[in-house]
Amino acid sequence: MFNHLRTGQYYHIEGLVYLGKNLVYLSGIKTFNPATGKVEFVIIASLNKQDQALIDYKERWQIETMFKAMKSSGFNLEDTHLNNLDRLTTLIAVVAIAFVWAYLAGIDKHENISPIKVKKHGRRAYSFFKYGLIRIAHAIMNTLNVKEFNDCVKVLSCT
Fold this sequence. Notes:
With 159 residues, the protein is α+β, with helices and mostly antiparallel strands. It contains four helices and three strands. It has helices at 50-71, 85-112, 128-141, 146-157, and strands at residues 10-19, 22-33, 38-46.
């Protein structure tokens, strides 16, 4: 059924499915996983029409990536064991700002200084967030390189 598709090509699966009283659209994309050498499919069931479903999925995936960064891939929010709502709210606000800073610093470094290397399996070695977090940490720890720290701060001003 999918053999005629090229890798990365968006595909609307024929037909609609009723889930209870809801009409569900099925959409998908054909991908190639270099690590396994196999063709894989991402199948998306959505209440939205198929052309919007993949866009929504990509946006949702960005949110999931942000949660991962906040919970286990950089900030380790859960390790704080905070249970006071005011303190937790303040911490999340500070971490959200730090996340955006790291993300922007990573994009800036990728686009203007040194692109993120692509590994053999076809994925980047770092996310923009992790790349930026490493950059900021290095700038803070290396007090002799004031320019690098100033460049990281300048990213926040969007100038």
